[in-house]
Amino acid sequence: MPGLSDLLRKLTGARDTSEAPAPVPAPAPAGPGIAPAFQLPGVNDLSARQAAELLAEHSGSPGLRLLDVRTPPEVASGHLVGVENLDCYARNFQQQLAQLPVGPSYVVICASGARSGQACRLMRKLGHVDVYNVTGGMAAWMAQRLPVER
Fold it and tell me: Which of 36, 91, 120, 131 could lock onto 43 through a cystine, CB 3.0 to 4.6 A?
């Protein structure tokens, strides 16, 4: 079974970074219905389908964490299994992100991919390396009819 870093490289097309530092990857092309303005420099993007495959492959792995940065009412209306909610509108949001361990990889989702993209960018500034934004967010996830908990 491939390791988490191998699978992430396969899904995103990233290079092996164990030998030499790689430049910050260019954003993925905008997917269907994704506004190019939501594609942020320095943020690794996964489609909803890629994120679902990654999460299924590494279900329960301490090396992969899933963050939902929507508000609690949004999360209550439907969320991914095993998600951790950090409300991006909370006053202490940046502090909460700073307290996350740097070691694991993170998949970050919101309603459309905009807030999660901004959260990913902030996480990169805080020293997180393996941070992945779900482009299209929950809207893309639901459009693909992927599993949601209510």
Answer: 120
